[in-house]
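Sequence design from tokenized structure. All designs in this work follow the same two-part layout: the structure record, then the generated sequence. An example of the structure record is given first.
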């Protein structure tokens, strides 16, 4: 279902950046590249604009959004930073890290964007285009991934277009993204929690904190009906084709998503084959993950068989997204 908007696509040049800032100021929806995935931005302080994000994506309103700002200094106006949050911000921002913090006293982010929580998620993206838009606009920008809710996150402007054409105002095309999986979300609570594995590996965050990140308690969602990281729930990042994990052979008619230099039996009868990283590099694999899932999803195979991916470094985020893609759906 389209909302009947005219979606303009502009390159990430001076005129494009200018149009993006203007559109945000008018309460519009602008998709733009970050280093992780393309985001769908709106003025975080404008409740009507924020509501339009939920409508355009078909996203449940209980799933809160990340507020993006250009610097740690700007982030301090939104969230309350203790020593550990400050250390993380200084070490890993700008970059693919999101911190969930208590709201600052006069937090300007619209209530709808935080879904009624006492906390707010904040990120300082590193991508030059994202930085330029945030600096030109001068206010926080909420930006979920620029896909329809439940779909695979977009890593090119074309992915955004295929999901959201006619539903948003503007797409800034800055080419393919570098990281390819969403930011790591860390809850800065008494015990720091890894709410979502992502573009910064757990090991790097633990090195800054000098302590291990805990997993969010699994039963928290059902207890309070307010999930700690609602986007973490069940069927997310889903291609239409069934996904089969840890494949050690390829069944006839399946599409194969490979990893590493080794072949597995049965590939001669595969509907299609893509390899996330023939040399077994997890950073390269993350870059290709969502695009390859979209490509294989279009092959109308009986299933997408995925070879085992190691768990270290970005492997944790890749395995997390694949596990969600493989959740059985109606
Ligand atoms: O890389 C990224 O993070 C991308 C780019 C565009 O910045 N954005 C992104 O946003 O992935 P989204 O909306 O798809 O995911 C945001 C995640 C969700 O899992 C959401 O539940 C969680 O952050 N989140 C947001 N606010 C939260 C809060 N106050 N407490 C706990 N989790 C929160
Ligand atoms: Mg998303």
């Amino acid at each position: 279902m389209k909302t009947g908007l005219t979606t303009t696509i502009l390159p990430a040049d001076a005129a494009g950046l200018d149009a993006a800032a203007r559109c945000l100021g008018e309460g519009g929806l602008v998709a733009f590249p970050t280093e992780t995935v393309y985001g769908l931005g709106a003025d975080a302080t404008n409740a009507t604009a924020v509501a339009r994000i939920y409508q355009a994506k078909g996203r449940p309103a209980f799933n809160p959004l990340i507020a993006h700002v250009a610097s740690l200094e700007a982030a301090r106006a939104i969230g309350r930073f203790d020593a550990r949050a400050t250390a993380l911000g200084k070490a890993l921002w700008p970059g693919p890290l999101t911190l969930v913090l208590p709201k600052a006293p006069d937090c300007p982010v619209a209530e709808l964007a935080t879904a009624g929580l006492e906390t707010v998620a904040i990120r300082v993206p590193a991508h030059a285009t994202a930085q330029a838009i945030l600096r030109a606009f001068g206010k926080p920008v909420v930006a979920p991934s620029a896909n329809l809710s439940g779909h695979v996150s977009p890593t090119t402007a074309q992915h955004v277009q295929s999901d959201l054409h006619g539903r948003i105002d503007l797409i800034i095309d800055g080419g393919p993204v570098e990281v390819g999986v969403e930011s790591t979300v860390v809850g800065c609570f008494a015990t720091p929690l890894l709410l979502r594995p992502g573009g910064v590996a757990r090991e790097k965050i633990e090195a800054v904190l000098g302590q291990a990140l805990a997993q969010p308690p699994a039963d928290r969602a059902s207890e309070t009906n307010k999930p700690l990281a609602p986007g973490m729930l069940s069927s997310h990042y889903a291609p239409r084709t069934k996904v089969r994990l840890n494949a050690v052979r390829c069944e006839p008619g399946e599409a194969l998503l490979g990893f590493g230099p080794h072949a597995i039996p049965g590939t001669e009868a595969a509907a299609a084959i893509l390899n996330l990283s023939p040399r077994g590099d997890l950073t390269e694999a993350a870059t290709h993950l969502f695009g390859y899932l979209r490509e294989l999803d279009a092959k109308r195979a009986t299933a997408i068989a995925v070879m085992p991916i190691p768990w270290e470094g970005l492997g944790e985020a890749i395995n997390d997204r694949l596990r969600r893609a493989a959740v059985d759906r109606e």
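The pocket of magnesium ion (ligand 2) is lined by residues 144-145, 153, 231 (CB under 6 Å). We note this feature because it recurs in several other targets discussed in the main text.
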